[in-house]
Task: structure prediction
Amino acid sequence: MPEQTLIVVAIGGNAITKENQKGTLDEMVKNIEIGLSGVVNLIASGNNVVLTHGNGPQVGNILLQVEAAKETIPPMPLDVCGAESQGQLGYLIQRSCLNGLKQRGVKRDVVTVLTHVMVDPRDSAFLHPTKPIGPFLTKEAAEIATAKKGFIFAEDSGRGYRRIVPSPKPISIIEKSAIEELAKAGKVVIACGGGGIPVIEGPTGDLEGVEAVIDKDFASAVLAEEIHADILVLVTGVDKVAINFGKPDVRYLDKMTVAEAQLYYDQGHFPPGSMGPKIAAAVAFVRSSGNTALITSLEQIQHGLEGGTVITP
Ligand SMILES: Nc1ncnc2c1ncn2[C@@H]1O[C@H](COP(=O)(O)OP(=O)(O)O)[C@@H](O)[C@H]1O
Ligand SMILES: NC(=O)OP(=O)(O)O
Result:
């Protein structure tokens, strides 16, 4: 790897509010502090790092707050709720990074960039919601919420039922130049929170927010390509990617080429709601940049970037 390695690290919203948690401040602060220690080590050892993060559980909770207060306080649309989640989580992640660096005796600026992401208004995702947000409900609770409020729910990878919203594909990161300059100047940048605030170009050419939640793995892959990152790290709940996941003949992989990843994808080893988007995002970055992607867990990153599953050209 080059001397001044630029690493984009993407962390899932479910790592910040876990599946069995309600999303209290205390839970989020603890998860971020413990979860980020490996990332802070990467920063402390001299790498340039851009941190991106999901927001599914958090933006879902903000929407529930909006919904609960709508008779007394004017409700805000999903893009504004997404922007709120960037501020909420950006603040907690930024503070945790600053504290972690200070504890290691390292002086680095840490900034959060409110990030807009261009999407296509004709993206078919607007007609077919797929992105799970908010708490995990039982089937019965989901049916009641649908009947009462008209929300759409879907089963999320065997973990329960969650509200689903449109998730258009990210086309380009509006603040890419600022993020690249900051990161290459040694600032730690938190960007593309919640996959970024989805925007389109309106009839006058002005940016307009649209109601959706972008997948943070896809947004991170586009960002990594646009800021010329050396490596894209997608952090999730497993140390390595497997074929035959959950079956007796499961095999965890240390590495795979994009061709192998595509073959396993086509063979159905990576489900659409969980590992599928990560593999698709990693493959897109490796194909477009010629660099490598790594899929691994926060625990594994504690030991550097040597473990996990590496995807190579
Ligand atoms: N082939 C596979 N290899 C490894 N993990 C898999 C595979 N297929 C599904 N998974 C599951 O997918 C999860 C990652 O998806 P998800 O939890 O939705 O991501 P996120 O961390 O972004 O919230 C893993 O923790 C694992 O439980
Ligand atoms: N926006 C997004 O991808 O969030 P999650 O990581 O919570 O799914």
Notes: Residues 12-14, 54-56, 194-195, 213, 215-216 surround phosphoric acid mono(formamide)ester (ligand 2) (CB under 6 Å). The domain at 6-311 is CATH 3.40.1160.10 (Carbamate kinase). The chain has eleven helices and 17 strands. The CA atoms of residues 167 and 225 lie 20 Å apart.
